[in-house]
Structure formats: structure tokens, C-alpha cells
Amino acid sequence: MSAGAYDAVMARKADILRAATGIDYSRYTDGPVIVDYAGLMASTGYDATEVRSLQRARGVGGTPMLELRNVTRLVRELSPPGHGARILVKDEAANPSGSFKDRRASISAHHAKKMGYAGLVAATSGNYGAAVASQAAAFGLGAIVIQEAYDGDGRGQPEILEKARKCEALGAEVIQTTVGPELFFMLLKILEETGWFNASLYTPFSVQGIETLGEEIVEDSVALTGRRPAMVLCTHAGGGMCTGVARGLRNAGSEDTQVVGVSVDLTGLHMASDHDFNRKSFTTGHTGFSVPFTSWPDRADVPRNAARSLRYLDRFVTVSQGSVFFATELLAQAEGLERGPAGNISLAAALVLARELPRDELLVVTETEYTGAGKTPWAQLAFARDMGVDVVNGGPESEQPGAVIALPLSPTQLACTEVDLGAVRRSYIRHAMTMLGRSPGEAELAFLAEDTRLSFAELADLMTPATG
User: Fold this and answer.
1) Segment 160-180 mean pLDDT
2) Running DSSP on this structure, what letter comes out for residue 374?
3) What is the pLDDT of residue 272?
4) Which among 338, 320, 296, 236 is positioned nearest to 452, based on CA atoms?
């Protein structure tokens, strides 16, 4: 790839993306910061009832809500008297491709078919690729999945390679790149060459598809227990899960439910580093995505990101890689549910946060994911050892991302670390001020307050250090 070819494609980025989604983002933006968010979300043309109907017609959604009785019993043994909420999990592995991301892909595929696109293109190394491949097949569309799969020495993580096999089994063409800027360039190039639909994770189609998950969580919780959830845990990466689920909870009248984002702590690892790329055991749901996307969501493969998690997060916590592997084994051995580790990120936090809540409250984990040969803890830990990462026994305090994975021996060793949302909001404001290059006007202040979920007074307090 020559520098000239790269620059030429990037110069056409806006036109390529407009043609590949059918959304004229200029209609919903005013300057470098303001987004007409309500207008952008309504631009799909589908209402909540229609979205659910479209998903159910393709076997998406309506997944089981399972009560983790044995896990809850264990948590209560570790909780203060009268505490230890009932833990429920939405078994999203029951979706056609095995994850909640079928919900994201379903509306994109329907819309692409409706608008006459011949296929879907997605840049993802995660479960979303399989979801796009599955929904494309259901609608008789082509599918191309572009994966950032290898480091400079040609080594691929077993989880990513497992997902490539899944995509290919579902009929998609998989194009794999090394870590770096090549991924976005390849996406633009293929979109331009094929004229296919950009099934981005960050369009309003994708986020709207997740709203049904939030709605079902409320409905299933009430049907199963007679109560609405006090807390819902969402694995947090680019913000789509948190945004869509929170919007769905509100659609279902559960505005008081606490929404908690959960990420794997990969502090110190740079996601664009060839050295660091294979020294992590999670390709999604980690701080390498969640912190940058929370502090500035518009670093996406569309002009404006419909996943805007700061609008909806009540808390943001991190867990260690070893804690997630522990939760995965616990789910399998205590409940008989073998599921993939990435889907258990929020479960690892639930084992801690449920202890804060009274026994009669509900805590809901939003997802499970399918598992496979490359997704199992054993495959991932073996690869980590091959990359020079030490695997030891111990609690999260013993873990060092990229160097040490610490596997707890007991649930008493599990912990969550709070992320300071005030600091994240301050970072967001700093980004906005940089984009503006001046003091914000009245309309910009109103948008920033809305996008960060702050009052004008709180916004002013945060802006003082950001500008000084």
C-alpha cells in the first residue's frame, strides 16, 4: 500500500461512507461537535415495534432469561447480612450466530436488502463479523468481514481465528490484516469497490437493534420474578451495548435501573501497538476501546457515532482478565453453562457488585456468547504463555496487563475497580474544546451538557481545568 493510494482513499472518506450507509450525516451535525442525536437515531425510519418484528422474523432476540441460582447462592455466602442480589443472565448465545450482535446486524441487513445493496461489509475482529455473516445469509446478501488479525510476525490470536472460521462457515469472505491503520483503509477501499452497505457497529441501525435487548431484560425480569432489575451490567467497548440497552430499558419504563459498564482492565497496552496486540486475551470489552470511545465516541468508522455511552452510564468498572476466566469456569461448573469468556466480562463484575444489593433485588447480566475451540480459556491462556505472558494464581492485584494474568482461586479474590466518570467527562470536554479551537457557544454548551449527562454548572466546573 503506497502512501499516495492511502491518502487518495482517505480523502474520499466522507463520500464513501455516505454512499455506504445512505445516511447524510451533514443533516444531523452542526460544526465539529454538535450532533442532532434524536434526529440521527430516528433516521433509520424504523420504530421499536417494527425493529422487534424484523428481528423475530429472522430468529433474532427472544432469548432465554436464566436465573443463576447456584451462583447467587455462592455470592450470598460472601455478602453482608441481607445482601446478595439475585443474578440473572440473558442467554444471548441463543441468537443465530451465538451473540447479542445478531441484534446489531439484523436491522442493517434488513435495511441493506430494502435499499438494494448487494451485500454487507464490516470491519471487526469480534463476534460482530459472525453476526453480519449470519444475517447476510438470512437475507440473501453477500458479506465481507475485515479482521485485524495478526501481529507483524504473522501470529493470530486463537479467539480471532476462531471467529474467522465462524464467519467463513456462514458464507462470508474474510479479509485479514495486521495491526495498524490498514484496517480502516481496507474498509473504505472495499466499500468503494463493491458499493455494498457499511454494516458499521456505530450506525443508528446497529444501536437501535440493541434496544430490544434492554426491553426484553425488563419484560423477562418482571415475568420471571415480578420485579424490574435494580442493576444491569453491560460489557463496555465501543459503547453500543451500554447505549442500546439503556435506551431499551427506558423504552420499557425502567428509568431507575442502574446501568453499569464493565471492561477488562488492559491499562498500559496500546491497541495499535504491534508489540502489545497479542499480549491481551480479550479482543473486545476492554479498556483499550472503552476508555477512548467513552471520552470521544466520534473516533468511529462513520462520521458520527450513534453509540454515546456517557449519556447513559451510571457507573463504569473494570475487572481483570483472570477474573473473567474464573467467572467462565464458575458459570460452566456451577450452572452447567459453557459460554465464551468475552460474554462473561459482566458476569465477573456481577460476582462482586451483587454483594452491594439487598437480597430481594435483581442484578441482570446482559449477555452470554457462544464458545468454540479458539475461545476457551485454555486456548487463550496457552497462547498468552506462548507470547511470554506469565499465568499465575492470584487476585487482580497480581495482574499486569501484557505481562501477568492472575487466575483467582476463590471468589473472595475477585474485585471491581471504579472508573472515575468525572475524569472521563473531563477528557471528553478536552477533546471537544480541541475540535472547536475556541470557547463553545450556547448551542454547543447545551449539546455538551446533554452528551455528558451534566448540568450547566457541572459542565462549567469541568471545563475550567480543561481550558486552563
Assistant:
1) 95
2) T
3) 87
4) 296
Q: Which long-range contacts link 49-54 to residues 24+ away (Cβ below 8 Å)?
A: 51/107, 51/208, 51/209, 51/211, 51/212, 52/212, 52/215, 54/106, 54/107, 54/110
In degrees and rounded to multiples of 5, residue 363 shows phi and psi of -120, 125
Checking DSSP bridges between strand 231-235 and strand 197-198, what pairing results, if any? unpaired
Within 8 A by CB and 6+ apart from 79, the residues are 354, 355, 359
pTM of the predicted model as reported, rounded to 2 decimal places: 0.96
Instruction: Provide the pLDDT for residue 466.
Output: 47
Neighbours of 336 (CB within 10 A): 8
Q: CA 187, 307, 223 angle in degrees (round to 5)?
A: 125
Sheet with 86-90: list strands edge to edge: 65-67, 86-90, 362-365, 231-235, 258-264, 315-319, 417-418
The cell numbers describing 138, all together, are 438470512
Helix axes 321-335, 345-353, angle to 10 degrees: 80
Beta-sheet strands, E only, within 68-202: 86-90, 119-123, 142-150, 173-178, 197-198
Q: Tell me the pLDDT band of 463, cut-offs 50, 70 and 90.
A: confident
- Categorize the per-residue pLDDT at 392 as very low, low, confident or very high, splitting at 50, 70 and 90: very high
Of 82, 103, 83, which is closest to residue 93 (Cα–Cα)? 103
DSSP state, 229? -
Q: How many CB atoms lie within 10 A of CB 62?
A: 13
Residues 6+ apart with CB under 8 A from 273: 179
Output the nine-digit C-alpha cell for 232: 444491569
**Cβ–Cβ under 8 Å, residues 212 and 219:** no
439 pLDDT more than 50: yes
Specify the amino acid at residue 248. G
Average pLDDT of the segment spanning 401-410: 97
Cα–Cα distance, 203 to 392 (Å, whole number):
41
Residue 282 near residue 266, CB atoms below 8 Å? yes
Three-point CA angle 27, 303, 462, nearest 5°? 95
Distance CA 439, CA 452 (A): 17
